Amino acid sequence: MAKTRDKILEKARQLFNENGISQVSSRTISENLGISYGNLCYYFAKKDDILLELYFLMQKELDEEVKNLQAEIFRFDFMVQSLRKMLKVLYKFKFIYLDLPNLVRKFPEVARHAKKQNQFRVRIAREIYAFLQAGDYLKKEKYEGHYDKLSHGVLILINAWIVDAEVYYEGEEEKKVDEYLNLIYRVVSASLTPKGADAFIRVYEEYGGLDI
User: Fold this and answer.
1) pTM for the whole structure
2) Are 197 and 70 in contact (CB under 8 A)?
3) What are 46-56's pLDDT values in tens digits?
């Protein structure tokens, strides 16, 4: 039973990513999976149930990476790799972020959860900035609350990069995540001290060789 349920979720994820949520029905999923519509409904009575399950699966994977990041905040290499993994999780479930406003309007539980998780990630971002400042990797704030604003900007990038990539990105598919990881670095880099810039350059060169 668990195996069939997992196959349904995986096929639904693929179809939603390829075609968009509105273009995929429960019957479409069952037909592509090669099972009866009744069999699919045994596990998921309606498409909304599949959507919610996939949303919370994505959040579970993201939470694991954020918690890993929090636990290893003093390792630059781990921070970069954790952020890359987070972007890959988002891309794995890209249909969610391509249609997030509609999902939030339709599902109150998604709206509540998304806001709660965002607050948690803002707190982690503040911890990271505090660590960077204490180690002289980050310049002093230009004004009170400057790094809160910068954190907000980075979170907007993390939440919105998939929409930008879907419309405007024309590079190689396998380089997509690193292209946007590079963009996030560039947003933060203006606030780094020379010591911080050197540290991040070494990490980027070791873990991906990004053009920074």
Assistant:
1) 0.86
2) no
3) 999 999 999 99
Domains along the sequence of the chain with CATH: 1-45 (1.10.10.60), 49-206 (1.10.357.10)
Q: Which amino acid is at 63?
A: D
Name the burial class of residue 115, with classes exposed (0-12), middle (13-18) and buried (19+) by CB atoms within 10 angstroms of its CB: exposed
Rg (alpha carbons) of the chain, rounded to whole number: 19
CA distances from 137 to 9, 10, 196, 200 (A): 43, 42, 4, 9
Tokens linked to 115: 């806001």
Tokens encoding 205 = 């060169």
Q: Among candidates 210, 147, 151, which has minimal Cα distance to 183?
A: 210
Alpha carbon of 78 to those of 10, 17, 74, 132, 207: distances in Å? 29, 29, 8, 14, 10
